[in-house]
Design a protein that fits this description.
The protein has 513 residues and is an all-alpha fold. It is 77% helix and 0% strand. Its main location: membrane.
């Protein structure tokens, strides 16, 4: 009896694990099912707020950004109205500037959105120029959008100052030393040749006096770093032409080319609008150049050491000093009659100041570039708004295009000849010659400057200055997009490609301007 009971108990003990195992498995499966259910619920709970955000009553994302920017723009207008009153109403100067500024920004953004397969991007400045031209020539808008000539001239001169600061800071002494004679040959030769050829062609085709012909020549003689520099940087990143330093050569020479053109223009401008003899005017121009260069060198040495390196926010302070000194030099030189001194002072100041800044120079350039992003839409929008279709003569456009095209052909041919003794192949010489044609920023500043000077001091010369303005506008409209397309399409096909990591290329610190 005892034995049977003990055996039964023993059997029960043996069967216990087998009976509990399914229960444990069942419990574990239930817990896993509950966990998965919880995770699914948690995921659905997480997605619910996202769905609610998309359909939420206060809008989010792009719609919120659009409304915020619209309200900000309206508040800027309200603040300006509270200070100036009628100036921000239709017909006022601030109203005209705001419309031109935002129209130029929209025009530049629209051109950036245009994407054509296997075709390089067009420069946004072309959209800004066309936006200003549209605002001026639409009948309804042109009646209410007006900008005072003094306001327009001051803003354009300020834009010129920023261009010169970027050119001075962008001159890399190491790159100039490395490229030596080729860089100076490319910067000086084509500019002077185009200026002289334009003077001759405009004298016979447009009936320009010789001094006006040379003034127009220096307006057209400058190449645009705003088109050349980004295009060359793209080729440089891809490794095209880097073994012989072609992108670096064109980037460095573009700033020097602008310096030569601006200096020649200021000299011709003082000759055209003065009553003395040509010899006295040339000597006065050299006097202005000497004064500007010396003043710029002294101020540049000052900015090298003040503020000192132990101060905080050093790049911002240096950028502020350079901007304030250079704007004062350019605008002040016009008030005291030293027209050519301000530009040379700006170039010398920014170049000398940046010599000992090493890595800090790049940070200053970024701040100056931010300032240029504000003045660029104003500059090209105002230039576009100066051209009126109604005031153009019937044959003016054809003669202006013919003058510009013939001078450009001479420039391209002369550039090809200058590069014949620099160690480049036939295809590379063709590429360099064609890459040296885009025009934009300097033409946008210098073209209207002659018109403003004529309106103030010599109204009887306004017809010549309007023709200069028209040629400058057409030069930007024709050469800027075509130059960008030629560089982007021809470069990869003509230049030899090398691995950028295996070739040590001396890069300049040039910024876009």
């Amino acid at each position: 009896m005892y034995t049977t009971e003990s055996q039964n108990e023993h059997l029960e003990d043996k069967n216990t694990p087998s009976s509990t195992t399914p229960q444990i498995l069942k419990d574990s499966s239930i817990s896993e099912h509950e966990e998965t259910k919880e995770t699914v619920l948690s995921q659905t709970e997480e997605t619910k707020p996202q769905m609610e955000k998309k359909c939420s009553c206060p809008p989010q994302g792009k719609l919120n950004k659009l409304i915020t920017n619209g309200v900000a723009f309206f508040m800027v207008w309200c603040a300006a109205w509270s200070f100036s009153g009628s100036e921000v109403l239709p017909g006022g100067n601030l109203f005209g500037l705001l419309i031109i500024f935002y129209s130029a920004i929209i025009g530049g953004k629209i051109l950036e959105l245009i994407r054509i397969p296997s075709v390089p991007h067009l420069p946004p400045l072309l959209g800004m120029l066309l936006a200003g031209f549209t605002v001026r020539n639409v009948p309804f808008l042109s009646n209410y959008i007006r900008v005072n000539n003094m306001w327009s001239s001051t803003l354009r001169n300020t834009a010129l100052t920023i261009i010169l600061i970027q050119a001075g800071l962008g001159l890399d002494p190491q790159a100039l030393k490395h490229l030596k004679r080729v860089c100076f040959r490319l910067a000086i030769g084509p500019c002077l040749m185009e200026a002289c050829s334009t003077a001759v062609i405009s004298h016979f085709l447009m009936n320009f006096p010789w001094q006006w012909g040379f003034l127009l020549g220096f307006v057209l003689g400058a190449v645009s770093p705003a088109v050349v520099v980004p295009s060359m940087l793209l080729l440089q990143e891809g490794g095209y032409g880097i073994k012989k330093g072609i992108p670096t050569l064109l980037i460095a020479a573009s700033s020097l080319d602008d310096i030569i053109a601006i200096t020649g223009f200021n000299t011709c401008l003082s000759i055209v609008f003065s009553s003395g003899s040509i010899l006295n005017n040339v000597l006065a121009s050299f006097r202005d150049i000497l004064i500007g260069a010396l003043a710029g060198a002294v101020l540049g040495i000052f900015v090298q050491y003040f503020p000192s390196g132990d101060q905080t926010k050093l790049p911002a302070k240096r950028a502020f000093l350079i901007l304030s000194m250079c704007v004062t030099a350019v605008l002040g030189s016009h008030h005291i009659g030293l027209h050519a001194a301000g530009g040379l002072c700006t170039l010398a100041l920014s170049f000398v100041a940046g010599i000992n800044w090493s890595t800090e120079k790049v940070r200053v350039q970024r701040i100056i570039k931010t300032t240029w992003c504000i003045f660029q839409p104003l500059l090209f929008g105002l230039v576009g708004s100066e051209v009126s279709v109604a005031s153009l003569k019937s044959n003016a456009i054809g003669i202006c295009v013919a003058t510009m095209s013939l001078a450009l052909l001479i420039r391209i041919s002369f550039t090809f000849v200058l590069m014949c003794f620099a160690g480049f192949s036939f295809k590379e010489k063709i590429f360099i010659a064609l890459s040296w044609m885009p025009k934009a920023t300097v033409q946008a500043v210098l073209g209207p400057l002659a018109l403003e000077t004529a309106r103030i001091s010599a109204p009887h010369l306004e017809s010549y200055s309007k023709d200069v303005m028209t040629v400058a506008f057409l030069a930007i409209l024709i050469t800027a997009p075509n130059g960008a397309l030629i560089i982007g399409i021809l470069g990869p096909k003509v230049l030899t490609r090398h691995d950028p990591n295996k070739i040590n290329v001396e890069l300049t610190k040039l910024e876009l301007h």
